[in-house]
Every structure is written in C-alpha cells, then in structure tokens.
Amino acid sequence: MSSYIVRRLIMMIPVVILISIIVFFIIQLPPGDFISGYAAKMTTSGEVMDEAALKLLRESYGLDQAWYVQYGKWIWGMISKGDFGYSLNYNRPVSSIIGQYMSLTLVVSIISMLFTYAVSIPIGIFSAVRQYSIADYIFTAFGFIGMATPNFLMAIILMYLSYVYVGDPMLGLFSPEFIDAAWTYAKFVDFFKHMIIPVIVIGLGSTAELIRVMRAQMLDEMDKPYMLTARSKGLSERRIIMKYPVRAAINPIVSTLGWSLTAVFTGSTITAIVLNLPLQGPVMYRALLSQDMYLAGTWLLFMAVCIVLGTLISDILLVWLDPRIRMRKGM
Amino acid sequence: MKTRLSGTTSWSRLFFRRPATNNAEESYYAASHWKLMLRKLMKHKLARISLYVLAMMYLMVIFANIIAPQGLDSYDSENLNSRPSKLHWVDPQGNFHFIPFVYGLKSSRDPVTLRKIFVEDKQKWYPIQFFVKGTEYKFLGLIPGNVHLFGVEDPGRIFVFGTDSLGRDLFSRIVLGSQVSLTIPLVGVSISFFLGLLIGGISGYFGGFIDTVIQRVIEIIRSFPTLPLWMALSAAIPPRVPIVHMFFYITIIMAFIEWTELARVVRSKFMALRNEDYVMSARISGVSNARIIRVHLVPGFMSYLVVTMTLAIPAMIIGETAMSFLGLGIRSPAASWGVLLQEAQQMENVALYPWKLIPLGFVIITVLAFNFLGDGLRDAADPYK
Amino acid sequence: MKAETATAKQSQDLLQVEELNIHFPTDHGMLKAVNGVSFNVYRGKTLGIVGESGCGKSITGKAIIGIQPKTSAISGSIKLGDVDLVKLKRNGREIRAIRGSKIAMIFQEPMAAFSPLYTIGNQIMESILLHRTKNKKEAAMLTVDILQRVGISNPEKRFHQYPHEFSGGMMQRAMIAMALSCEPELLIADEPTTALDVTIQAQVLDLMKQLQREFGMAIVFITHDLGIVAEMCDEVAVMYLGKIVEQATVREIYKNPKHPYTRGLLRSIPTIGSRKERLESIEGTVPIPINMPPMCGFFDRCQDRIPGVCDKREVPETQLSDNHRVSCFLYADTDNETEILS
C-alpha cells in the first residue's frame, strides 16, 4: 500500500510542474499588467504617473521581464524560500493572504460537504428502498430542481427569504460586531447562523447529484444475486440492506471524497462572491480582475494541486475499500 | 440460462416480442437504430415534453428579433423598473374586448416609501396589435426588417415581464438573450464533440505511446478547477472587444474544458468495442480498419456520445450564466440570461422588483429540459431496455 | 390401498407443496409462471425438478423459502410440518428463522451469489451467527470446520479470502458450505452446477451426495439436465409452462416415460455409444403463459396431440401408479374423460 502511495506521489510531480507553467501562462495572458491597471486608476483619481515612474515600478516587481523568466523566479522563490510572491493589491506577501482566508474556506467547505453526505446518503438509500413511493418522487423532484438552479441565484433567494422572515440577510460569515472579536460562545452561535445559507447553497448542487448517484447505485446493487443469497440465510431486510448494497453503493461515493472536497472548495467561489463571504472566492475574483498575478496564480495553482491531491486520496480510498482493486494493484 | 426474475417488465420484455408478427412489429425490427431510438424517446413522457419545450426555445432563438417587441438598445427612461403590464379584456365601462389591451401608465410616488411606482391610467388604453412596425433589426443577421409579432400603439407601452433599472423591456431582452444563452452551449458542445471524437478516437485506436501522452494532457487539463479556470480565462479576454468576438471567446473557453470528458468517453468506448466479438469477426473477415471504425465502432457509441453531449449542455448553460452574472462573460449591452440576472445581485432589486428573477426561470426550465432529454436519450439508446 | 401407502409416507414427509400458484401481473394480463404445482419432499430423499428455462422451476424453488420476486402474487400452500410457509409474512421473523436453518438454498452462479466486498468466512459465518451461536469465536471455528467438510483445503486461510480469490468450483463448494452450515433439513439447489466445468460439476455432485448422506437432509434439485437427475435424484418432477406434467421415481421416468414432453426430453440427451445421425430436439418454442385458454400448453409442439381434445380443456392429472402421475389426455381415465365430455 505505502509503495503504491509513494509511486503515485512521485507521478504527481511532473503533473504539478506542468500545471504551474500553464497557470502562469494563463495568468499573464490578459493584455497589460497590474501596473497599467493601477496607473489607469490613478489617472481617474486625478493623479498622473509618468512613464519613468511606471517603468521603475515594473522593474521593481520584475514585470518587465519575459513571462518565463518571471515564472522561473516565482517557482524558484516557492521552492527555495516558500515565497509565493507578492500581492500588489494587498501589499502583502501572497502566503499571508492565503493563510488568512484558507482556514475559513476549509471550514466552510468541510461543513458543506458533511452536510451533503449527511443529507444525501440517507435520502438516496431511502429513495431506493422505497422506490416509486411518494417520498421517492418528492426527493427526485427536489434533486432535479437542486441540480438545475445555479446555486449563486439560490443564494440570493435564500438571502431574501432570510431578510423577510428573520430580518437579516445573513451576509458574510459574522455579524459586524463579531468580525474582530475573539472566539466566544456568542460568536460561535453567530457564525453558525451565518453558516446556514452558505452551507445549503454550496451543498445543494452536490446534494442533489449525490442523491441521484446513491439511489441509482442502490437500485443497481439491490438487483444483484447476492441479495437473494443474503435473504436465503435468514437475515433481516434492514441488515441485508445496510451490510450489502449500502456498503457497495457507498464505496464509489466515499472514494470520491477527496475529489468532492475540492469540488466544494472551488464550487464555493461564486457563492462566496454573491454572499460576500470572507473566503477565497472573492479574493481570487478581485485578484483576477486587477491582474494581481502572483496572488491569482498561486491561488489557481493551489486549487489545481488540491484537485490532484484529491484525486490521489480518492484513488487510495478506492483501493482501500474494494478488495478486488486491492488485489489487482498487487497489494 | 437466466431464470432470475427482476420484475414484470423483464417478463413482458422477454415474451412480447416473439409471437407478434404483424406489420408494426416487423417494421420495428427493420427500423434503423436512430429511428428506434427516436421512437423509444417519444415514449418517455418527460423527454417528449422536454423536446417540445426545447423546440419552442430554439424557435424563439430563430425568430427572436420578430418576437421581441423591442430591440437590444431600446430603453425607456420614463419607465424604469416598471412592473409587468397587466392584460385586460374588460374596460372600465364593462365592455368585453376580444383582443386584450393594456392601460397607459402614469408614475406617482408611494406615499409611504416615497418610491416611484406606476399606476394604470384607466383613461388611456391600447389594444394589442399584431405584426406592428417597430425597431429596425436584421433577421438572422441578414434580412433587414422592422415588423414585430405584437406591440401597442405609441405612446402606450407593453412590458410582458416588466423593465429593468434602465427601462429596458425584460421580455425583449430575455428573448434576444436566448440567442446567446442557447447557442453558446450548442456551439461549445459541438466544438468539444469534434475535439473529443478526434483526440479520444486517436488515443483509443492507436493506444500505446500516443495514448499515454494524450491521457496525461487530459489529466492535466482536468486537474484545473473548472470555475476558477473559467474565471481566469474570461478575465484574459480584453475588455471592449466586439460582441461577436466575445461570444467566440466564451464558447472556446467552455469547449476547451469540456472536450476532455468526451475524449475519455470516446477512448474508453473505442477500447471496449475494439475487443467486442463482432469487431473481431469483422477483422478476421478481412474488413479494413477504416471500414471497421466507420461501420462498426462509431455507430456503436454514437448514441452514447449524443447522450453525453446532451447532458453536457446544462453545465455549459449554467457556466455561461454564472460567468455573465459575475461580469466575466457576455457584457452589456449584449444580453444573455446571465447578464439579465446581474441586476438580481442586489437583494433590494429582488425584494422590490421580483420580476427581475424571471430569467432564472428560463435558465431552470432549459437546464431541466436538457437533463430530461438526456435521460430519455440514455434510456432510448440502451438496446436492452 | 392408496390411502394406506399415503399415511405410511406421511411420516417421512418433510415438505408438502399443494396447488402452488405464482402469478405476475403484467401490462398484458396475468403471467402464470407457476400454475397449480403440487409435490412432496421426503426426509433424506432428493426430488429433481426438470424443465426448460422459464418453465417456473427456479421460482418454485425460491418460493419455498419465500424469496420469489416482490411483484409476484403467490397462492396455494407450502407446508413444512404444520407451518404453511405461504401464509408467513414476507421477510418476516418466522420465515427468516426457517431460512438458512431448516431450509437452505444454493444458487446457480456462485460468483454472483457472494458479495465481492466481504470475505468468504464473513459471509458463511453470518448464517451460523444468526441460527446457531452468538459467540463469534465459536462461529468462526464452525465455519472453518464446514469449509473443511466441503473439501476446501487450508480452510483457515480461505476463511479470510475474498470471492475473487476463489475459483468457480471452490466458490460453489463455499456456497454449499454456507448452505449446510446450520445443518438444514432441506436443501434447495437451483442449478448448482450449470455454471461449472464438467469435471468440476462431477466433483460438486459427488460432494453433494456425500454430504446428503452425512447430514441426512432432503434435496430439491432444480436442473434442466436429465443426466444429472439420473445421477442425483430419487424422484423427478418434469415441469412445463408452470405445471408439473409428469412425476415419478427416477427409474420409472427413464424406463417408462409417459408424457410426450418427457419422452422428447429423454430423446434429446446425447448418449455415448449410440451414434445417431442427428440429435433429436423438440420442435417449436415455449408459448407465453399469459391469458392462456384452457388447453394443454404442450399442444403446439406435441407429436401425439389429439386436436379437438387437447386444445379444448384443461388437462386432468392421472395417477398411473403409486409413484407415477402424468398430466396428458393420452392417459386420462375414461370415466374422467366422459365426465368432462358430458
């Protein structure tokens, strides 16, 4: 098993390097750079910057060099000093910005995912066991609506409902008075309340999808001959369902855990922008728009590495859960 | 020797083909795969309805300029945020009219909130007229015209879905926006279909080194988070490019990410089918490679690909909507459903002018319709169903 | 005289199936998969049920332990002692107490009959834990023991292996071990050797015979292979289109087959030594048992059919001797016939 993981980790290296090159290439793709955008902003506020000053700025940030040179410096800084570059927008090192937003993003993503699993797996099982019942139809309909509604718009609708019925649209993750406060019980409760809408919105799409997958998997498994064998032993229906088809149906779902965590991670982007959550989404969005290239690039790279890692975790889980694959991989 | 019974359907399936030899049954066997698929598809109720809905949608796309009472650039500074017009059949005198009419609008202030609101001016009424002359347009971008399906006489106004904050008719913009929102996914899927078929086919047919390289490339592209990548690429589109270019860029971005999925499908199908007995027997009988691909392999998974494509469209629609919604996709004055929803970003707009969410309804219906159609196609393509 | 032998036999009766019907509602009418089937199973004896695919033999076997498809409607009676299994609640506590302990079943495809996700030991032990002991250690020991008894070498190691690590023949042995783990009185074997190679087939059949002697259980052996029947069974019931068309002892069936269908089946067995030009087969295909008029289901394919009789009414059953009954107009009692005709 461990040799398999090591082998996979080594295989990741060239992929990550290639990804980082592509990321950097995409990031510098827009015409102009941060300085030209900055100069334009200055001009509108009445301050004119002369060419010499702009040139000086560019030189100081290394923006006047070819993109591959900039890339080389960026990567070298990353490897040698753990330096991800400098955010011109925030006037801070990229790493400190990422550190600031990443923990909250992770918390929100993990809670959303737990919500997704906690809701969709039982519903999927129930829908399959009670196939064609009224509840099954309702859940199926819900699944379709959840799948077809862009979740950022769902966010607006929920915000509106919350505003009408609770009197607070629950923007952000904390009420203003708690933003800089230390963690107390009251802050935790406030945080929890603010989490409801984001978690529902971020989790909705994947919940709907997972219900469908779980239901289909269950129906598939419940049709298999081993169900008859289990019945012929005298096991109760409930035990049969929980031991055999549920276990078999959950396998592919659990094994995509790594992948779905990253999906939730990136899927929260737009929702976070709409709900004005202090997560990575809005920061990334602004960085892209203002061509804050090191921030945007690091971010994109980070996401891609997350997905690669997620895939790896999924593969390992799959091997770990399914004896047949375990055998094939020679473990 | 299968004696296991999975239910009544399998029984009737098992038995109800063989005995009947009437004409209908015979034509059933003689029909081509596609005809069979279509016939089975039409039996799927949701899929059939979805097909009709989509047909209407695409008719709307073709005749958008005629259906929309106003053009993309028209606005009415008198009627900002006006609610949808009410159609009336009975006038204040109690007379019934066969052709519905709308009242004129006069603005006043809400005594409480002091907001500008519109009330119907019952003195003036304008019957709906058909095929009226109005804004100039070019039908399908070629034929100039100015006839619109319906409208009312000046200075009357008809806003089927109300207006936005610039006084633009939402209905017209939804209809015209559908031209973008509904063609981007089609063009995008077509491009990714072509790429997927070509690259996946090469990968699956030749195998070996080429296959390994292509698989690595696909793996790398798929390692990118879709939405952030879309955002990054969209941000790379220079501002103020012509609308046509914009459209082109967005489509390419969509297709660029989507094709990998199709390529994987094609490759795996190719590899699976390559080892099928019927392909083997064709090879042993000396059928040429090209003919095997054309006659035996491609039809074997074409229906499957069509299903995959249909199911890929909803993601593109939502993707385009999301991009435009964030201001990274199609930009005003061009319209797409995502652009129209931009105003819904502010909660006040949703609270005060709920009709601004109407484009969302179109998005949901279209996405559902494509999903149901895809599901129906999948069932219909399955020869064992 | 008949009544006397009947009571004599009754003491050995294990299972009595009477007028069993299993019907499926379909869009086109009621599909009568099993239609008025009656038979007895005696302690320690083997009853073979023979027929083509779709004749209802497999579902009859499943119905005995109540695992026929949910969509079916079942009527008649299946008596195990004084308990009518048909009347028990589907998947209820009582039928579950019988399944696996008093009546066990083995299935056609051993690979598919086990879940790939659990070890063989785990899946066999389940039955023991349910019916024999709650002690896991003891159950594991019993499992290893039964694995040994079905001829699986190195059972302690095999206990921890997964189905994909077993060969087909080994799997069928494991399935037999699972079925016998609680020493059932009746074993239902649903085509247990169909999916196996011929040599393995013979081994498994030998094993079953040997175990039957050891455990003293009765077997209902469902198969389409008359050759296996000759080797395994004491009595045979030939099923066609949901009905038993002929039932007799094995010796009687082979020496003195009565029903044209049985004869057809026997003729279609290739035998070594007799080199015929062609192997005989039964012409035509099995009709669909939906909305069948009252007639002999074999009519269309029968060489000895009597038009005007066979296709006009239900076939009566004729008791030819103590251990031979047949449902065919060729043998219908005359008084019985006049009764029908009048």
UniProtKB/TrEMBL annotation, chain A:
GO biological process terms held by the UniProt record: transmembrane transport
Domain named ABC transmembrane type-1: residues: 102-313
PROSITE patterns xref list: ABC_TM1
Keyword annotations of the record: Cell membrane, Membrane, Transmembrane, Transmembrane helix, Transport
Subcellular location: Cell membrane
Spans through the membrane: 9-29, 101-125, 137-166, 195-214, 248-279, 299-321
Pfam families given in the database record: BPD_transp_1, BPD_transp_1_N
Record-linked Gene3D superfamilies: MetI-like
GO cellular component: plasma membrane
InterPro entries associated with the record: BPD_transp_1_N (IPR045621), MetI-like (IPR000515), MetI-like_sf (IPR035906)
UniProt topology in membrane: Multi-pass membrane protein
Family recorded in the similarity comment: Belongs to the binding-protein-dependent transport system permease family.
Name used for this protein in its record: Peptide/nickel transport system permease protein
Organism: Cohnella lupini
UniProtKB/TrEMBL annotation, chain B:
Membrane topology: Multi-pass membrane protein
SUPFAM superfamilies: MetI-like
TM region positions: 49-68, 182-208, 220-237, 243-262, 301-330, 350-373
Localization, UniProt: Cell membrane; Membrane
UniProt feature coiled coil, ranges: none
Domain of life: Bacteria
Classification via InterPro entries: MetI-like, MetI-like_sf, OppC_N
GO BP, sorted A to Z: transmembrane transport
Keywords tagged on the record: Membrane, Transmembrane, Transmembrane helix, Transport
Family under the similarity heading: Belongs to the binding-protein-dependent transport system permease family.
Name recorded for this polypeptide: Peptide/nickel transport system permease protein
Organism: Cohnella lupini
TrEMBL record, chain C:
Domain ABC transporter: from-to ranges: 17-266
PROSITE patterns on file: ABC_TRANSPORTER_1, ABC_TRANSPORTER_2
Protein name: Peptide/nickel transport system ATP-binding protein
Keywords, ordered alphabetically: ATP-binding, Cell inner membrane, Cell membrane, Membrane, Nucleotide-binding, Translocase, Transport
Top-level taxonomic group: Bacteria
GO molecular function: ATP binding; ATP hydrolysis activity
Cellular component, GO, one term: plasma membrane
Keyword Translocase: yes
Family per similarity comment: Belongs to the ABC transporter superfamily.
Major subcellular site: membrane
Species: Cohnella lupini
